[in-house]
Amino acid sequence: MSLSAKLLLDGEHVVEETRTHVKVLVVPFLFGLAVMAVAGFTYGVVGDTGGSWARIAVVAIAVVLFTITTLVPFLRWYLWTYSLTNLRIIEQRGILTRTGRVIPLMRINDVNYEKHLIDRVLRCGTLVIHDASQQAGLRLHDIPRIEEFHRSVSRLVFDNHPSQQEVPRGESS
Description:
- By secondary structure, the protein is of the alpha+beta class.
- It contains four helices and seven strands; from the N terminus they run E-H-H-E-E-E-E-H-E-E-H.
- The protein has two domains: 13-21 and 81-160, Pleckstrin-homology domain (PH domain)/Phosphotyrosine-binding domain (PTB) (PH-domain like, Roll); 25-76.
- Helices cover 42% and strands 25% of the residues.
- Strand 3 (88-93) and strand 4 form a beta hairpin.
- The radius of gyration is 24 Å and the shape is elongated.
- The chain crosses the membrane at residues 24-46, 52-79.
């Protein structure tokens, strides 16, 4: 899901857009497989002895469990995006109710990243951005290709901060 053009300011363009690493979907995928396996087994057992209402109940319970354990986490992952534009960082999330946070690049004071062992293997990490506000820093968890994203953010932050004017040296006597 890309950032809507109506959210962009005049002269603003998207530099990078990402979401969390796909590793966050491994556990929901395994739960989905388990739900389907148990539902298939139960449907087979109930089909031999029970009536059609029992089979319908097994299917209904399986659909509800699959939705809760697999479909909702997938939608949450798919709809939670981080967009880096030439002027700001935009975090958007939510399935039914969309919320977001916007940090102008010129207000950012510090950009760093954290990588644990598994993150190093999967080439992802957490980007931590501190700005000049009273709010806690923005933590972008499990960002794929964290070093590249960090470099892009850092480069744009430096480009958006007012350049320090070189102070002319005084003449020595």
